[in-house]
Specification:
heterotetramer; A: 147 residues; alpha+beta; 6-stranded antiparallel beta sheet; 4-stranded mixed beta sheet; disordered C terminus; C: 80 residues; 20% helix; globular
Chain lengths: 147, 147, 80, 80
Amino acid sequence: MRSAIVSRPLDPAALLDEVSGISNGASILFVGTVRNINDGRDVTGIDYAAYLPMAERELAAIVAEATERFRTPDIVVEHRLGHLALLDASVVIAVAHPHRAAAYDASRYIIEELKRRVPIWKREEYVDGTREWVGTAGTQKVESRRQ
Amino acid sequence: MRSAIVSRPLDPAALLDEVSGISNGASILFVGTVRNINDGRDVTGIDYAAYLPMAERELAAIVAEATERFRTPDIVVEHRLGHLALLDASVVIAVAHPHRAAAYDASRYIIEELKRRVPIWKREEYVDGTREWVGTAGTQKVESRRQ
Amino acid sequence: MTITTLLFASYADALGIESLRLDLPEGATVDDALEQLRTMPGGERLPPAPLVAINLAYARTDSRLSAGDELAVIPPVAGG
Amino acid sequence: MTITTLLFASYADALGIESLRLDLPEGATVDDALEQLRTMPGGERLPPAPLVAINLAYARTDSRLSAGDELAVIPPVAGG
């Protein structure tokens, strides 16, 4: 069981190796990547920012919950911060379990809770050069006073 | 969209790369591996056998169904045959999709249908040196006339 | 007419054979073929209603066979 | 008493600041702190009931603050 918020590229295959073991029959890897369209707008990249100590704490709590709820210690989650280009992985969730149903459920639990609770934000960059913070309730068009 | 039944080691990371693309926000990799205990017995390895032309056909049909049902062409499935040791991957399912919910659902659909329909069988080897074909309705203790 | 019959995994072990030709009367069904298999040594180990496929597609056991068909008798599958 | 207040993402952009100290009367609540933030330039852009955390844990806006607390005003999260 491990979670981390990092500023380097993620390595999905390494996380898959980290959770695999002879008592596990199923491994699920979730990889979230930067895609070129969101809400109909052409995206060229994303900056991820976090309230780091709280994000680390919430993410660790979610992984601990999943470990207990789905009865496997073999869970590793990493989320990346900073500037990501198209195709870059922003989050990787690796879960291994003796049985596949619990592996899928644990993986899904973690990504849903992560998106609900972990204080991380993303600012999308668009082809026209503009940037906007994205919220779960749609893009927030807050005019910046710092520009 | 691609599926294959092969007799070489599987490469999960390569399949993940194969499905990823800039229009996909989520990739799910399912890896089924040989584990050391099944139905309470100590397993040391598994031989996988298939009715190859039909297995290829059923697997291709399942992938085509998933492609249509979950609206993504980015699905690759490989199943391995022959002798597998503990930790070896027997099946890898890679799915990428703009949205994570459909990616999870497609992955799950494929493994469940594969286990239900694709004519592949496995003979487990146990620590005491015995071997038995395993069925979904429990191990079939058929005495071999060929031994 | 003659059909090819394939046996796999535990069924192949039970009958000691993986492939054989069966001679059946015209209009014979899968059930007729299974009945013939059950008269062979080990054939009594086949279940009452096994899964079958004709020419690579799952079929019912009351399906009619044609000359040259490939009939596969399929044990419970266990892929994945 | 003095507390530290942290702003992030769109909220930090709105007020033009990421971290500030607020002086509040003893017994003040998160709502009192938010009211003070709203008097600052750009503070009117904060929503009526934003998510908040006290000392790294989500809290209600009627929670009482203590001297030295770290209050974070948290925009809708968008990780993953």
